[in-house]
Amino acid sequence: MINGVLPEAEAEHDAPAAAIWQREQEALANLPAGLSELPTDTLLLQPVNMVGVSALKGLLATRSEALPLPVTNILYTPENLSLSGPVDDIARSEHGLIMLMGKGGVGKTTMAAAIAVRLADMGFDVHLTTSDPAAHLSTTLNGSLKNLQVSRINPHDETERYRQHVLETKGRDLDEAGKRLLEEDLRSPCTEEIAVFQAFSRVIREAGKRFVVMDTAPTGHTLLLLDATGAYHREIAKNGGVKVIFTTPHDAASGPG
Question: In DSSP terms, which residues pair with 152 in a beta bridge?
């Protein structure tokens, strides 16, 4: 069974599709002897998910073309959408934290830059920052604007800053053996998480006096980072029987309660 073969009709008016179809056909024509001699069935690449009885029936039916695309109703068109409305609503609070979260490549950086620029143009003090290693805010903005601070939480820089701080404070009164042990401990992977976490905390605290627009790394990584230290503290408090009051960036971002 050869699955996902591009239909020839898809390659007639599309140069990239034609190149893919040609490459597939060459591969099929040059199968190794052990494979080319076997009985073969081919399933065409389909434009829809193969979920449900009707889709599976259509997949297994004898046909030389892919299933047609389903008809969908377009609820929103570009002319119906505007960023100014939501940003104007945000601006009424005069300060706060705006986090752009989602999968990679969906436009978080572009939206973060647009929101920050809009707020800065309205006269607000804005800090636009990113924790995404693939971010390109400087390219998106192409220069600085009045009332707009642009920064990046660089894991390497934050880790080095944290290491130096710990060595200068906790390691100040240690002997050479103790300093070597501390340096070894600071080389562990969790050191970077702690350092970036602290950088997150510093930026989020600014939201009490200004707008902070944060372009984040993909969602799962960001949420785990925000809540990691809080989970650790809760576990220590539970097992140690000690009542502590603490607020994590995840708590701050979630709001009261």
Answer: 130
Structure tokens at 82: 């505007």
Task: Give the amino acid at 54.
Answer: S
The number of residues in the chain equals 257
CA neighbours closer than 13 Å in the CB half-sphere of residue 154: 7
Q: What tokens were used for 50?
A: 């193969």
Dig out the tokens for 68 from the structure: 């047609």
pLDDT below 70 — which residues of the chain? 60-81, 132-135, 138-140, 142-144, 218-257
Q: Report the C-alpha gap between 98 and 214 in whole angstroms.
A: 6
Residue 217: closest CA among 205, 199, 232, 229: 199
* Full-model pTM: 0.56
Exposed, middle or buried, 65 (CB in 10 Å: 0-12/13-18/19+)?
Answer: exposed
The structural domains of the chain, ordered by start, are: 2-60 (no CATH), 78-254 (3.40.50.300)
Q: Where are the alpha helices (DSSP H) in 61-107?
A: 84-91
Q: List alpha helices for the chain, DSSP H.
A: 15-29, 33-36, 53-60, 84-91, 108-121, 137-141, 155-169, 176-186, 190-205, 219-240, 249-254
Q: Which residues contact 182 (CB under 8 A, 6 or more apart)?
A: 166, 167, 170, 171, 174
Query: Tokens for 232?
Result: 């650790």
**Amino acid letter, 43:** L
Distance CA 91, CA 13 (A): 48
